[in-house]
Every structure is written in structure tokens, then in C-alpha cells.
Specification:
CATH class: Alpha Beta
Oligomer: single chain
Length: 342
């Protein structure tokens, strides 16, 4: 094999022992899990917001952002459950560019996976410690999930991973909600197949073990838009799109139909400032149809301290170095407007 074996990585158990979750915080995380899970099990009618930066690039600005979310969450807790995004892995379409804190805990330094593993655990642990939020991350690498398994309350499987068998089987063994995005080509049937696979039990090899999963009843879809073969973006958040997905759920006979609508990516054409308008249209569709209202459990929003995005090395504190995000002032206003419309 044409690989350079640089060093053996510590196991998840070792890293967890280095940075443990205190018992009191484990209880906080368990309560967060119950609130979030109840939404997907139709035990709560609260609305979920999975919200935060496109990618976590530095600990200080991410924690500052999440601290701001804490104040807002307390004001809308009767209607909304907020799950901050701390996305520490970043898929790259061409393989080039910043791959996230796991690869580069310092975006301007060379990749260092050992420092990255420690950095991602520390930032998630700090968020729980200082704000009481147990957050969301993307499961880009299923075998890395154990390093954060006691800290996460929500996991997303990305558009480029949703067809992968290992992602689907791993999702079937998790005890937190797992969102399956529609693939970049837009085939909703692929997303539905992933949801179905994750809801069933499987026997497979995971981290060197033969394991058996029980199935995850909280697996669900995430509509993120798609890309035409000509390369242009196309949305799938409109009323007709939501109605179509609801009918697919009915045909599948899966219990507890659930969808999260991603307001950025191809749904906005990466026009980050369109996200508040898209959110309002989804809420309008929910008011028009009880079926859609029962299926749509929330929104996924890309948001950070500063509007837009920068080039690597731009040096703008709290501004995304990957996809453009909605700035804090607009984000705060958007959350309050959503609460008023619910």
C-alpha cells in the first residue's frame, strides 16, 4: 500500500479517560437527549433548530457563538429546542481545502490528527460545561464516532456519505437522532433507503468487533437541495417537495415520519442571507398541511458570529472559512421570528 504509517492513534477509551465527562454533566446531556428524542418520537411538538457554523474552525469563537445561543434558548424554550452545530469534520468535494478541526486544529498549521482528536473532544466538552448544550456533529468518519459518543445529542450523515453502507449500519446502532441528507444528485429515494436501513437492526464489523445493532427509530431525513447535472443548485424545501416526501413515508410504512429542512447549501444556492426567508416558507407550508406539520421537525441553519465567509488566512474572528453563514444579529432575529410563527 502506498501509505506512510505516521503513528498509532489512541483508542476512544484512552481519549475519553484523558478528558472525561463528569457525572453531573452526563446527567445534563441525558436530559438534553430526552428533549431532542421526544421530538422525533412524536412525544413533543417543540420545534428543533440545529444551528451553527458550517465548520468549527477555532474553539474560542465557537464557544462565544454557543454562549449567545444559550441566552436565546432560554427565551424560546417553550417552543424551540436548540442544538448547536459543532461540525469538526468537513467533507470536501474535490478533496482540497480545510477538512475541519479534526484534521487541522489550527487552520493555518499542518494537519495533525492526534491534536485534532483531542481538540474536537475538548471543544464539545467545553460547550457542555459552559453552556449546558450537548451539540451536533457530522458523522463523516463512522469509526471516529466513539471519541465523541458521550457528548453528542444529534448526528448528521452528509449528502456524500448517505449511500455508504458503513454510515447506515453505524447509524442503526446509535441511541440519538441521526439525520440522513438527500444526496447531492437529489434522489430522495436514496435518502429514504438510508433512513430505512438505519431503522433496522444489523450485524456488522465495527472497530474490530462483530457487533449487532437494534435499529434507530429516530433516523430521519434532511432535505438540503441538490445539484443539477449542469451544476446549478435546485431547492427541495417547497410545499410540493415536502408533500412528496410525506407520501414516500406513507408508502414506506415507517413509523414517526420526520424531516429536517436545511435552509442553506443547495436550498439557498449558498446564498446564506436567504435562510430566514426559506425558514418562513417551510413554516407556511406547515400551516397549510397537517401532514407536513407532523413530519417537519425542525430546521438546520448555518450561522456564525459574522456574515459570509472568508478565504483561509483571512483572519476575521467568527467568520466562516468554509461555506458562508448568517451573522449573529440576523440569526438572533430569525430565531425569535420563528418562535412567533410557531
Amino acid at each position: 500500500m502506498n501509505l506512510e504509517y505516521k503513528r498509532e492513534m489512541p483508542t476512544a477509551r484512552v481519549v475519553k479517560e484523558m478528558y472525561p465527562v463528569p457525572e453531573a454533566l452526563a446527567e445534563v446531556k441525558a436530559e438534553n437527549d430526552k428533549r431532542i428524542q421526544s421530538i422525533f418520537l412524536n412525544e413533543s411538538d417543540k420545534f428543533l433548530l440545529v444551528i451553527g457554523p458550517c465548520s468549527a474552525d477555532r474553539e474560542d469563537s465557537v464557544i462565544e457563538y454557543i454562549t449567545k445561543l444559550r441566552d436565546v434558548q432560554d427565551k424560546v424554550a417553550d417552543k424551540i429546542v436548540i442544538v448547536p452545530r459543532i461540525y469538526t469534520n468537513k467533507p470536501r468535494t474535490t478533496g482540497e481545502g480545510y477538512k475541519g478541526m479534526l484534521h487541522q486544529p489550527d487552520p493555518e498549521a499542518a494537519p495533525d490528527m492526534l491534536k485534532g482528536l483531542i481538540a474536537i473532544r475538548k471543544v464539545h466538552l467545553r460547550a457542555l460545561t459552559e453552556t449546558g448544550f450537548s451539540c451536533a456533529d457530522e458523522m463523516l468518519y463512522p469509526h471516529n464516532h466513539p471519541y465523541l459518543s458521550d457528548l453528542l445529542s444529534y448526528v448528521a450523515v452528509g449528502a456524500r456519505s448517505v449511500e455508504n453502507q458503513t454510515h447506515r449500519l453505524t447509524a442503526s446502532g446509535l441511541d440519538i437522532p441521526v439525520g440522513m441528507k438527500n444526496p447531492t444528485g437529489g434522489m430522495v429515494s436514496v435518502m429514504m433507503n438510508a433512513i430505512n436501513a438505519a431503522r433496522h437492526g444489523h450485524t456488522f464489523v465495527y472497530s474490530g468487533w462483530e457487533v449487532k445493532s437494534k435499529g434507530n427509530p429516530m433516523s430521519h431525513g434532511i432535505l438540503r437541495g441538490y445539484t443539477h447535472k449542469q451544476g446549478s443548485s435546485a431547492p427541495n424545501y417547497h410545499y410540493e417537495d415536502l408533500r412528496f416526501v410525506y407520501e414516500m413515508y406513507m408508502k414506506s410504512q415507517l413509523e414517526n415520519p420526520a424531516i429536517i429542512v436545511d435552509t442553506n447549501h443547495a436550498n439557498s444556492g449558498k446564498r446564506f442571507d436567504e435562510q430566514p426567508r426559506i425558514a418562513k416558507e417551510v413554516l407556511h407550508s406547515m400551516r397549510l398541511s397537517k401532514d407536513i406539520a407532523s413530519m417537519v421537525k425542525g430546521l438546520m441553519v448555518e450561522s456564525y458570529l459574522v456574515d459570509g465567509c472568508q478565504v483561509p488566512g483571512g483572519g476575521v474572528y467568527g467568520q466562516s472559512i468554509t461555506d458562508p453563514c448568517l451573522g449573529w444579529e440576523k440569526t438572533e432575529r430569525m430565531i425569535y421570528e420563528i418562535a412567533e410563527l410557531l
